[in-house]
Amino acid sequence: MRLDLSFLRRPDLGSVLLGRTGESPRRRSLRVQALLVVSLLASNLVGVAISTTLVFFVLPGPFLLTARFVVPTAIVTPVYVTAATVVGALWAGLAARRDLRWSLESREPTPAERKKALRVPWRLTLAQAFLWMLGAVVVTTAYGLVDPDAIAPVGFTIVFSGLVVCGAAYLYAEFGLRPVAALALASDHDVAAPTSRTAGAMTRVRVMWALGSGIPILGLIIVAVYTLAGRDITAERLSVVILVLGGTSLLIGYLLIRMLAASLLAPVRSVRWAMEDLTEGELSRRVVVYDGSELGRLQSGFNRMAEGLQERERLRDLFGRHVGRAVAEAAEERDPELGGRGSRVGVVFVDIIGSTEMAVDRDPAEVVEVLNRFFRVVVETVDEHDGIIDKFLGDAALVVFGAPNRLDDPAGAALACARDLADRLPQRVPGCRAGIGASFGEVVAGYVGADDRFEYTVIGDAVNEASRLCELAKERPGLLLASGAAVAAAAADESARWETVGSEVVRGRTEPTELCVPAG
Description:
alpha+beta
């Protein structure tokens, strides 16, 4: 058994961590919850570590690792961090479960549920922001009651860390919730304006720039103001502050921009992969729409384009089946217009013997089944010899060689096709006898009808002659007759396979037609 590894190379949702779109609701729910819990906990712990390092060892101000700050350092801060972690996890879990309940019930969301589902990343981010800002108030107040000089460094550090964590939390939440967003958007073919669903691409870029570059630079400005205000800070300490804040800005800015780029490129990459499959002829290829912004519009726009191409190809295939591939291709290359042009073509007419009695004696479904088997052999044989089925006439078929596409030896192709039909029909459709007539001559090939309804056909003496030969062939042992003109016009290797058995003036003509049958 071969494993399908294309999923690892081109994941449906942009990452193998997100699984596949066909997962069960329970497995999808467990995957999403695990990704959200791990990513949010990790980003918050990193934020706590950054704020602790900055406030204790980097930023100017009173040294906080002393006995007089034991209450805010050893009691208030750890207790709040622990409580905020628990409350944040419960808050996020309950909010997500409430807004995403429909995804566990294996049903399409209502418009209101869809809107809430796409806003879950914002809700989670706002919950994180509230807890961090509340922590800034609580912890800064605790340190400020001991020493007012600690308010500025502690407050700035917590706010700075909290905003960075919120930016990362939003990107992580949006990433982890892609499977749910894909389900929500699957039932909505018109992706609405970005501001009504999720943050647009430009908004995300601005926010991430502010978090990764703007706020750290604002911290450097605050340190400069703090120094100019006459605060006691040494040049060595100032250098350390600038180096650490600058390095932190570079690192955090790089990480946030990398995460942002990944979130913006994933939908574009999925469209590029699908475009490659589309150019290779895989018209059923579709993109999973999981972004509610203008990038989601790009994804859904590709799907609409692919649906249009598939529908166009389906109609093209139906058109080719109705009128023949050669006629369809000729119509595509040049606009069809009423009228025709003279052509020398080979013509084969094949008609079932006793079709009227068969329709009376047999069940209609059985008659249709016999006709389908009969015409299947005719179509296969004609295609082998590069002819076209000009039309099906109830229980007969008119076949043309040399129009609309030219053939080097249309007479030889018609004769070879007639011989093959005479051999195959008795074997492939037992009990169904058919007369076959083949001719060659000048006809008018083109479109007849009205401006708004026409068909391709051939009209001329060769067509009438083939029909009359078919009627005569029904009374012959081999059930096959060809005109002497067709045999004479064919290439030597084909004409050598035929012999003349006489001549006869067929109905509708004044000159006798030379009759030929397969030799031997």
